[in-house]
Amino acid sequence: MRQLLIVFAAVSVMAAAGSACATKKFVRGQVDEVNGRVETLGQSLEATQQQTKENTGRITQVDQRVDQVAATANAATNSAATAQTAANAAGAKADAVDVASKRLIFQVAINDAGGNFKFGKADLPDDVKGQLNELADKLKAAPAGNFIEIEGHTDNRGAQLANNKLGLDRAENVKRYLYETYQIPLHKINVISYGEEKPVSPNTTKAGRAQNRRVVIKVLA
């Protein structure tokens, strides 16, 4: 009986040892599997970080190229503006030299003080046309080759851009009347608008504003 107990105990110990060994293998397998997953995740994370770094580098390069393109565009814009300014200055200088080389024979100022150009209007009233008819008679009596310069002016009421356009419209209407009625060659007529820039009277009074709403016609030789 004692021997039987000893054998049973030995078998139990062996069974326990076998079970413990199996448990260790299972745990070791689970640990190895977890370690494999961790290693895989680590590699994936490293790859993601590397890809992010490469993308950041590409974005930086694109930003640098965009900045270079913007700088080039700005430089081109500035160059164009400088060229336009120089061209305008050259044109203004040429006009000044051209006018300075001519001699003023006479000039006629047609303003609203005598009931002519009304506020905000560019149409030619009959009294304006009468003064233009007198001017045309003088031009017929003058030597050939005369040059006509027509200036459009306004008072200071309203926006500056609108006044510039209104002054130009008045000058253009005078030019059109002289051409259509008396066939004065268009290449001998130049128009310019000064808008509200060159008042001859203060704009603080109604009479002063009426005098500033005018067209000045200069006959040059």
Kindly describe this structure.
- Helix 3 links the parallel strand 2 and strand 3 (189-195).
- The protein contains 4 helices and 4 strands.
- Helix 2 packs across helix 3.
- It has helices spanning 2-100, 126-141, 160-182, 206-212; strands spanning 104-111, 147-153, 189-195, 214-220.
- The protein is rod-shaped and about 125 Å long.
- It has 221 residues and is α+β, with helices and mostly antiparallel strands.
- It has 2 domains: 1-101; 102-220, OmpA-like domain (60s Ribosomal Protein L30, Chain: A, 2-Layer Sandwich).
- The mean pLDDT is 76.
- It starts with a helix and ends with a strand.
The assembly state of the depicted protein chains is single chain
Largest sheet descriptor: 4 strands, mixed
Low-confidence stretches: none
Gross morphology: rod-shaped
Mean pLDDT over all positions = 76
Number of domains: 2
User: What's the CATH H-level homologous superfamily of the largest domain?
Assistant: OmpA-like domain
Rounded to the nearest angstrom, the distance between the terminal CA atoms is 153 Å
H-E order = HEHEHEHE
CATH class of the largest domain: Alpha Beta
CATH topology of the largest domain: 60s Ribosomal Protein L30, Chain: A
Radius of gyration: 48 Å
- The count of helical stretches stands at 4
**Strand tally, please?**
4
What's the architecture of the largest domain in CATH terms? 2-Layer Sandwich
Q: Which structural class is indicated by helix and strand composition?
A: alpha+beta
Relative helix content:
55-70%
Strand content: 5-15%
